[in-house]
Amino acid sequence: MAIPKSISEQLSVEEQPKSAVLPRSISLIKALTLPVIFIVLVEILVRNGVIEPYLLPAPSSLFQSFTELAEGDLWQHIWTSSWRVFLGFGIGSGLGLIFAILVGLNRHAEDFLEPTFSAIKSIPSLAWIPLLLLWLGIDESSKITLIAIGAFFPTYTNTVAAIQGVDRKLIEVAKVYRLKYWQQVQQIVLPAASPGILTGLRNSLSLSWMFMIAAELIATTQGIGYLLSDGRETSRPDIVIIAIILLAVLGKITDSIMKLFETRLLRWRDVIRNS
């Protein structure tokens, strides 16, 4: 017996949200399984004296410590670290894009710049700190510069690889349509390389948070890196753990925003795949 069209449509509409919600719920449960097990295990071990509280506090006690910090200047620390990261990321990734496009499109520029950039890329972040202190002092410029250095190379490396990896057949098609050089770059090369470029930007943003910690070890009195240092010096593991959790949360939030931005910009890939 055939089901009337109106009833079948109603069933499909009602079933769609359920079918979409269920996989998301299962994924969320899977994602939370390990953190919940770890938190419960640590709580049990600390409460039973297996782990000393001065080494690792019970997770249940962290809420009170967080409340005390929130009533103080915690939000100022978060704001200070965030604007340092975003400013350093903007400067470093912006310069990385400029030099990467130059190197990716010009073989002569690659011969001049690539060996130097490859050598500088191998320098650890902490090695820059003494030099930046000598050059720029202990103010904000040295911290922003260090973060910018960390953001530069992932963007530069991924963008160069993405541009040089563009299918040559696309360039040949552009020449058939008699597109000028900069039209080829704008309409063919950069759009084709955009997935690699956006991956480099995401990596740069993640690395900016890591370099921020190193930067805030440079004689600072504000920021999440300062909380880490202060917690160590005052033997407060709760403050150290809260600072680490804040870094994880902020890093995840910013990466999710970048991922959303990437998905929106690369919607054309889904159109091509579904066509």
UniProtKB/TrEMBL annotation:
**One GO process term, biological-process aspect:** alkanesulfonate transmembrane transport
Has UniProt tagged this entry with the keyword Repeat? no
| Key words of the record | Cell membrane, Membrane, Transmembrane, Transmembrane helix, Transport
Q: Which Gene3D superfamilies match?
A: MetI-like (1.10.3720.10)
Spans through the membrane: 28-46, 83-105, 117-138, 144-163, 207-227, 239-261
Indicate where this protein resides in the cell: Cell membrane
What CDD domains does this protein map onto? Answer: TM_PBP2 (cd06261)
Q: How does it sit in the membrane?
A: Multi-pass membrane protein
PROSITE patterns from the UniProt entry: ABC_TM1
Gene Ontology CC: one annotated term:
plasma membrane
User: Which InterPro entries does this UniProt record tie to the protein?
Assistant: MetI-like, MetI-like_sf
Q: Indicate the principal place this protein occupies in or around the cell.
A: membrane
| ABC transmembrane type-1 domain span | 78-258
Describe the family membership recorded for this protein in Swiss-Prot or TrEMBL.
Belongs to the binding-protein-dependent transport system permease family.
Alphabetical list of PANTHER family matching this protein: ABC TRANSPORTER PERMEASE PROTEIN (PTHR30151:SF39), ALKANE SULFONATE ABC TRANSPORTER-RELATED, MEMBRANE SUBUNIT (PTHR30151)
Kindly provide the name given to this protein in its UniProt entry: ABC transmembrane type-1 domain-containing protein
